[in-house]
Amino acid sequence: MIVFKQVSKVFPDGTSALEKIGFQINEGEFVFFIGPSGVGKSTIMRLIRREILATEGTIMVLKNNLAEMETKEIPQLRRHVAMCFQDFKLLYDKTVYENVALSLEVKGEGEPEIEKRVAETLKSVGLEKKGNFFPIQLSGGELQRVGIARAIVGKPNILLADEPTGNLDPDSAWEILKLFKEINLANTTVIVATHNVDIVNKFKERVIVLKEGKIVSDEKKGKYEKST
Ligand code: ADP
To answer: What is the C-alpha separation between 200 and 124, in angstroms, rounded?
Structure first.
């Protein structure tokens, strides 16, 4: 489903973010990318969504060779590869419902279908009573739930999350990770980039550890030792 072969990324200013990394992620997996700030986690996420191109190597996502994709095919790829963020990236002048509905409106879905899908999705993230609230009225954990609802309402194959618990207290962070696991069990491949060691170690999922742009370990039911 996602294959990186000998992938390197050097930014135009000469910064080398990734050096010859390789991994494969299969359908239905739950994977953490972990390591301190600056090791290349976000760069991997951005490469998977083809926001940036690799300098070297091959990246396949859902059978597409990203280097060979045409620009007009990219929006379609991103519909299948959704993303949520540490700072949520919500529209603060729109309600919860409107934030989640937006991606379906952009796709040109009809109003009855949008209403049904948004209601289902808000329920699945535990926000069925908050559709008419504005983001400013919500807690951090609830804001991330809106971010997740917005990402999954289009039924993506792959959900990427970049430091999704970075702005949350430990209890909310734990609840958000449980929600990712539910989404994963409902047949979505979930990939979480984080430096939150406690959560990773409690979760016992596949852990890919990065250090200075390289993969230093990749283990099923992994743990992360701070010394690596
Ligand atoms: P992480 O997500 O693990 O914190 P990043 O993938 O954001 O790490 O960054 C990896 C490295 O690439 C860092 O040294 C960072 O400064 C650098 N980097 C990220 N984006 C850019 C960019 N657009 N231009 C130059 N350097 C960048």
So the answer is: 23
